[in-house]
Write a structure and sequence with these properties.
Helix content: 10-25%
Family: Belongs to the CarA family.
Number of helices: 10
Enzyme class: ligase
InterPro entries: Anth_synth/Amidotransfase, CarbamoylP_synth_ssu, CarbamoylP_synth_ssu_N, CarbP_synth_ssu_N_sf, Class_I_gatase-like, CPSase_GATase1, GATASE
EC number: 6.3.5.5
Structural class: alpha/beta
Strand order of the largest sheet: 14-16-15-17-18-23-22-21-19-20
Catalytic activity: L-glutamine + H2O = L-glutamate + NH4(+); hydrogencarbonate + L-glutamine + 2 ATP + H2O = carbamoyl phosphate + L-glutamate + 2 ADP + phosphate + 2 H(+)
Strand content: 25-35%
Largest sheet: 10 strands, mixed
Distance between the termini: 83 Å
Shape: globular
Number of strands: 23
Amino acid sequence: MFTHHLIRLPRLSRGLATHSGPLVAVPGSLHLTTGQSFNGRSFGAHKSVYGETVFSTSITSYTESMTDPSYRGQILVFTTPLIGNYGVPHNSAPTDSQDVGVVLESQGIQCAAVIVSDVAEKFSHHTAVESLASWCRRHDIPGVTGVDTRAITRLLRDQGTTLGRVAIGAEAALPPPKENEFWDPSKENLVDQISTREPYELNPTGSIKIAVLDFGAKANIMRSLIRRDAAVTVMPWNYDFNSVRDQYDGLFLTNGPGDPLHCMEAVLKLRTTLAEWDSPVFGICMGHQIIGMAAGLDAYRMTFGNRGHNQPVLALASAGSIKAGRVYVTSQNHQYALKLQDPFPQGWEPFFINCNDSSVEGIKSTAESGKKVWGVQFHPESAGGPLDTIEMFTDFLNECRAHKSAALKESAWSTVGVVSPMIKPRARVVVAAAT
C-alpha cells in the first residue's frame, strides 16, 4: 500500500503545477521576407513587430536566452517543442560579492518576439512566479505558438537568417508585408542602444581591478568575475579606456548584438591599448570580434549563425585550463565571426575552431608577443548551458593577479634603484647590477 502511494507522488506533483490560464484565441502569424508565412495563436503582448528571424537549439534556459542582450532586435524561434514548462522566476538579486542585481541576464526581455511550437499553459518550479505568457505580456513582447518550428528552422538553415514580421490579431489576416517594408536590425548600432551610458562599479572591495567594456553584457559575465573576487568597473562600449587604463589590472570585453563593424570606434581604441598596454585582455563573443579586428582580422556575417547550448569547439592551443586537442561543448549566440586566414597577423594565433562549420571560435596572442590576450566566440559563463570552459574566468584573473604582482615587484626594484646624488658612483653600479 505504501509503495502504491509512492508511485502516485510524481503524478500528484504534476497536478500541483500552476495553471497560467487558457490562451485567448487571438491569431498570430510569422511572415518571412522570402515569402513564407506560418499561422498560429498569439501569446504575450497583442502587438505586431519586425525583426531578424533566428533559431536557437537550446533545450533549457529560455528565460536566460530571452534576456540575453545579444538577441536584441531578433525574432527568436526555439527548436525545442515545449517552452514555458518551468515558468519565470522573480528577476531580482542582491548587488554584492555574489550577485549583480538580477537573476537572469538583464532586467527585461531583449528579443523582439518569440516563436514556439507549444507554449506551456501549466508551469512548475520552486522559483517560478509567473508564466511565460504573462511575462511576455508584462514586457510588451509578442509570441506565437502552434506553428511548425521544425519547418521554420529548416528554412532558416537553408536560406540563412531571414527578416521577419510577427503579426498579431487582425493584422495576422492581412497580406504579408512587401520585401522593402521589412526592418533590418543589422543596419543599426544595436550595441549603442543596449550599452550602459555611464560607468558603474560592482564589488568595489575586490582584490583585483577589472575594467569591462559593455557591448551588451550578460549579467552572468559580471557574476563570474565578482565571484572570483574582482572589483569590476563597467564602462560604455566606446569609453576612452586608454585615459584610465593604468588604474586597472585587466580589461574585459563583453558580448553584444549586431554587426561589429558598427563598433569601429572601439576597435581603434583597443588597437592602441594592445600596442601600448601589457596587462591581460579577455573578450567574449562581440568582444572577441573586436579584439580580432583590432589585431587585423576581418569579420563576416555567417549564413545563420550559431545559437544554442551544444556547440562543440576544438582547442588548437593550450592556455591555463584549456588543453590543446580537447573538444569543449559550449554555449553560443552570434551571427558574425572572424575570418580564418593564413598567415595569421603577427603575434596572434587561432585558439579554437568550431567542429561543425570550422569557423574561428577563439584567438590568442602568441607566447613570443609577450602579451596575454584571448578572445572566444562562445560563452564560457554560459547560463544556461555547459560549463566546460568556465575556468577561463579563473585563468584570466590569475593572469591579472600575476601581472599585478610582477608590476609591483618591478616598481619596488625601480624605487630601490633611484640613486641619491650623495651616493658614490660605485654604489650606483652595484644597484644597477642588482636591477
